[in-house]
């Protein structure tokens, strides 16, 4: 009884003062609802040396090659299409006019970041992994009179002479966005065989940073323009409904052959019938993303995270028939890997029992913990709601307890980062026992203690040279080899406990996803709650 009381009081105290990091929420499906009917392109064969009449056809080469991109930035050069000062009214490119604030202004620096960093690096992620039959003709881009695509400037020459030299053409803007949306994208024009060929991308300047995180979000949005969207998956007959999944009446799955194969491999579940799509997030997010509960750290989850470009997304794009995956370039993801079928078919927790400690949590400790992507320290997101949760989201004996209802996790509790406890750029003064820097990742602690008491998990510098992990922890400048499955016993500032050595893939695939900073809120706001927690502990210890 005492444990239950302590747990609930601590829970309320922690939640009341914590500040979560803002994450990119994709609004793909909201945009899709405003696109309107997609037109089919006319592709004109390029003139040959022998001349002759140009013919309307789908001009593509027979061999497969890495996909090529071309961007057009007229709207980034037109001051009437983006914010240049506060209080201006500018289009958001999905039908609304918004008032600009300081953060919405497209500065020269942010314009350069979009053109010279985010888009080229995002394109490279796809070029490295996707092959297409290269287009050899000129694509005539129609002028649009309504819908999202009509909001973008398409030069008259593109409508008459056409564009050539690429396989996917994107028109880019930087109208203001709302909330934590960095960017969105969609398809405007298809080839006669259905393959997307022209799309649009809008960046919200308020969230633009020259960071790996922004690159991954950009790659996510470009994937939507390439066809990772429910409308195209339906057109390609890749979807099916599955009834009675984890207490839900029905869910939507991508059930095409390669996706089923890679789903079975990743989760180690031979009975998997497909990869589940998101059903939370309303019209902005549902359907055109992987179910985040199952794939939190994947590129095509509906809320951005570390964004691994895994075999799951590569398989879905290959199954459209428009792309071939460059197998061997997929990025590994620990979330859900080898979890077995139970993760997909059963609740994340049963009566508060957690079988997946690397993914979910139960808040049985007040010590700060690593996030699943190893990028930050965070807290277990468990809330006490005012009413009992729906049956499919009941994970504890107390039916009012559950995770966040705004994180696309089916209310499963998981460790969520604070806004200023990222290993790469957090506030070292409040990250007890952590070494903060651009090369730092979060490492699990086993009974770590210093002169102030127990610590929990910590950030430490990580080196990945020659395929081996080495770490350098706070208070010691020596690099120490840290092979998976072993541990390090830190000294100096530490008086006890061990640092557990991580998998190479967990800490060496992606570095420094938020080095660009952005607006952060102080974690100091949690200190009053921590004080209350200490008082509660003292009070209970008296009984």
UniProtKB/TrEMBL annotation:
<dbReference type="GO" id="GO:0004222">
    <property type="term" value="F:metalloendopeptidase activity"/>
</dbReference>
<dbReference type="GO" id="GO:0005737">
    <property type="term" value="C:cytoplasm"/>
</dbReference>
<keyword id="KW-0479">Metal-binding</keyword>
<keyword id="KW-0812">Transmembrane</keyword>
<dbReference type="Pfam" id="PF01457">
    <property type="entry name" value="Peptidase_M8"/>
</dbReference>
<dbReference type="InterPro" id="IPR001577">
    <property type="entry name" value="Peptidase_M8"/>
</dbReference>
<feature type="active site">
    <location>
        <position position="221"/>
    </location>
</feature>
<feature type="binding site">
    <location>
        <position position="224"/>
    </location>
    <ligand>
        <name>Zn(2+)</name>
    </ligand>
</feature>
<keyword id="KW-1015">Disulfide bond</keyword>
<comment type="similarity">
    <text>Belongs to the peptidase M8 family.</text>
</comment>
<dbReference type="GO" id="GO:0046872">
    <property type="term" value="F:metal ion binding"/>
</dbReference>
<keyword id="KW-0482">Metalloprotease</keyword>
<feature type="signal peptide">
    <location>
        <begin position="1"/>
        <end position="20"/>
    </location>
</feature>
<keyword id="KW-1133">Transmembrane helix</keyword>
<protein>
    <recommendedName>
        <fullName>Leishmanolysin-like peptidase</fullName>
        <ecNumber>3.4.24.-</ecNumber>
    </recommendedName>
</protein>
<keyword id="KW-0862">Zinc</keyword>
<feature type="binding site">
    <location>
        <position position="289"/>
    </location>
    <ligand>
        <name>Zn(2+)</name>
    </ligand>
</feature>
<dbReference type="GO" id="GO:0007155">
    <property type="term" value="P:cell adhesion"/>
</dbReference>
<keyword id="KW-0472">Membrane</keyword>
<feature type="transmembrane region" description="Helical">
    <location>
        <begin position="520"/>
        <end position="540"/>
    </location>
</feature>
<keyword id="KW-0130">Cell adhesion</keyword>
<keyword id="KW-0645">Protease</keyword>
<keyword id="KW-0865">Zymogen</keyword>
<dbReference type="GO" id="GO:0006508">
    <property type="term" value="P:proteolysis"/>
</dbReference>
<keyword id="KW-0378">Hydrolase</keyword>
<keyword id="KW-0325">Glycoprotein</keyword>
<dbReference type="GO" id="GO:0016020">
    <property type="term" value="C:membrane"/>
</dbReference>
<feature type="binding site">
    <location>
        <position position="220"/>
    </location>
    <ligand>
        <name>Zn(2+)</name>
    </ligand>
</feature>
<keyword id="KW-0732">Signal</keyword>
